What we know:
The protein is an alpha/beta fold and 283 residues long. The chain is 36% helix and 21% strand. The longest helix is centred in the first third of the chain and has 23 residues, at 12-34.
Amino acid sequence: xxxxxxxxxxxxxxxxxxxxxxxxxxxxxxxxxxxxxxxxxxxxxxxxxxxxxxxxxxxxxxxxxxxxxxxxxxxxxxxxxxxxxxxxxxxxxxxxxxxxxxxxxxxxxxxxxxxxxxxxxxxxxxxxxxxxxxxxxxxxxxxxxxxxxxxxxxxxxxxxxxxxxxxxxxxxxxxxxxxxxxxxxxxxxxxxxxxxxxxxxxxxxxxxxxxxxxxxxxxxxxxxxxxxxxxxxxxxxxxxxxxxxxxxxxxxxxxxxxxxxxxxxxxxxxxxxxxxxxxxxxx
Length: 283
């Protein structure tokens, strides 16, 4: 079973109900932690439906925040959603590959990405591209879900899925994405030559009104877990649904309160080393 065969990214509205409602408040927390300062040109590489682009483009006060924010997204459908009133209105979004950025060297003051790095075939190449297009002293930063431990919705889901279908085990994002941990993220940033690297945990609450509010977004096929659900025949889907329902902590009013954690990383592109003084070459 090829792990990425269920990674579908074609319907922005469906993704928003599944994950966007949590990734948008998370993006706000990331920007507050990042503190991008005033002015400058920022790029959101792999912007998805525009959550981080919108958070960057929404200044905390008039005249504050980046001067310009541009989103880049490889899925045309998601790029169109990001450019709409529901995504990141007012910020342009172009279709492109985060691993081959269509920007000149040093063209940006900062490059960020949210919840996308682990889905790229070559994350190191994407970070190298971000370093290339950011100016000396500029910031490169990203965040990813803590799939292995801190993303409770998916932990409950995959525990239920593998209990009824052992072949689903390799699809679990906690196993698929070892990058989504503090030390691998730090190492990736340091290997790219970035300085002052920091890693931090960012959390958001994920409260569902009831089981239908939690389960129905899994039926829309956007992302690995919903893609897996869409592949199941009705009997298998029903077994998974009931196993998941039975495992969840349901309050007396029917609500389900879970937590979601992400790991954020940032670093600074150091200035270029000065050339050696005349006559020093060969010494």
